[in-house]
Amino acid sequence: MIIRPVAMHDLSALRDIAVESGPGFTSLIDDHEFLVRKIERSLASFASNVRRPGDQSYLFVLEDPNTGDIMGTTGIEASVGTQRPLYHYRVGEAVRQSPKLGIRRRQQTLSLCTHYTGCSEICTLFLRPSHRKAWAGKLLSRIRFLFMAQHPERFANTVIAEMRGVSDEAGSSPFWQWLQANFVDLDFATVSQMVGTGDNGFIADLMPEHPLYTHLMDEAARAVIGEVHPDTRPALHMLTSEGFRFTGCIDPFDGGPTVEARVAELRSVNQTSRCRVHIRPDSAADDDASKGAWTNGGQGKTLMIANADTTRFRGTVTQAARYLPAHQLLEIPASLAYSLGVTNGAEVWFSDLEKQRGGNSLIADSYPSTSFREANRAH
After folding, report:
1. Is the pTM of this model over 0.70?
2. Which residue among the candidates 88, 115, 151, 229 is catalytic per the annotation?
3. The pLDDT of residue 298
């Protein structure tokens, strides 16, 4: 399996993914013109000469090289909340007390905010059920961090991920049902479509300006605050292992948590190395490499590896590579080199997917140690 930038010929597959992902997956909408614009924006972003993050969007697809099938998709937004507001509810607490009466009460609140203006966002991760296999989900998630490590000038110092909240098989969100009944008379599917296509002005128009007291919500809505969709739990676990943390912001439509991290502190960024490649002829062990066996076979460590290109970016997972630290070389079979589009001596980036958290960072110094507020002013 190979991950690469999306191309216009992937339009049909993207539309299939938009249908399969269902309501609530707002970064892909089953709308032809929307998907065409999304692909065009991604193509322009990969091709642009970027010195600082702006209105760029990078969309990748995971391809089965044997069949040409698109297995899934994943993406990065360079700077969110700058072209249009990115709304969240911040989970807080109100304390009311009367010393005279000896009464003190704490109540959970939800306050509408636009806290994450200027951050980068990882998004659009979806692995199609028919193509779920070993390492595919990890590759879709972590290849984004390798790409961010390669191009620190394209991304902010803080990255967020909006996790899909709880909804039922019909696509109905308990959290939104309560909001719909009390404030915004639009069903969840309609809201998801509007937000996905960039039409979120109704939030400022119709949502209450004052904090919501969660004890006034019904039990079903209150129970899903900060909870993720069952299908999203593996993705959340993967992100927390990278260093993402929930700091109190939830999605204003399904109540799902938004997690954040400093890019320089991410596990995959800290454990990403770069070196030159040494190409060896395919051996007997690599006889099936042309069929994609190097993505899950071999005797070496499980590595995520990518070339150093931007518009022709290619990445994969392999156990057929061997790092030679004394020579600062990564040895790979010729068939894998061909799939990655690299020649002998070319630069490659790689990360050990099985390595535990820790170790020395080779590229963390590329990210200035500024505060979150300073990062937002800079970007």
Report:
1. yes
2. 229
3. 47
